[in-house]
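Below is a filled-in request sheet from our internal design queue. Each sheet records the structural input a requester submitted and the sequence that came back. We keep these sheets so that new team members can see what a complete request looks like end to end.

REQUESTER: design group, bay 2
PRIORITY: normal
MODE: inverse folding
CHAIN LENGTH: 150
BACKBONE (tokenized):
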């Protein structure tokens, strides 16, 4: 039995009657990280993908504490700190249904793109899965050498 699963096999598993999806960003992100856990054997770099906890409803005191710690509104939901192609890494903003990016999110997307990151908006886990696979299959360029004090 194979230890990996193709994107199509995962989608078929997730669309079976036992795993009915709810149409909201949280659930789509949960499905994405379930897929990531399965696909890490095939794409080890996926183990570096992480969520950025900058959205959602929180108690006022928790929100104040997070803001003091540096959480910023509009930052994309996910980050994969893996260089591929001409990019330093990949940011993903997850959306579900007909949700659109906010003005603050658009500003972050523009600024991160200017800094050499790929930034994409994905409507659901399927789009995010396809994006991650296509991103990771881009060429890997030689690592840059650090020039400075040793």
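RETURNED SEQUENCE:
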């Amino acid at each position: 039995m194979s230890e990996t699963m193709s994107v199509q096999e995962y989608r078929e598993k997730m669309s079976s009657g036992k795993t009915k999806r709810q149409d909201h960003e949280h659930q789509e992100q949960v499905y994405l990280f379930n897929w990531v856990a399965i696909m890490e054997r095939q794409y080890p770099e996926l183990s570096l993908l992480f969520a950025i906890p900058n959205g959602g409803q929180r108690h006022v005191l928790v929100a104040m504490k997070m803001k003091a710690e540096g959480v910023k509104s509009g930052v994309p939901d996910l980050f994969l700190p893996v260089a591929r192609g001409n990019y330093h890494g990949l940011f993903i903003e997850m959306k579900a249904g007909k949700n659109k990016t906010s003005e603050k999110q658009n500003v972050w997307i523009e600024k991160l793109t200017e800094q050499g990151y790929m930034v994409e908006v994905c409507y659901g886990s399927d789009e995010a899965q396809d994006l991650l696979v296509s991103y990771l299959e881009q060429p890997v360029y030689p690592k840059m050498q650090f020039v400075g004090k040793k």
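SHEET NOTES:
- The two ends are 48 Å apart (CA to CA).
- The CA atoms of residues 143 and 149 lie 18 Å apart.
FILED BY: M.R.
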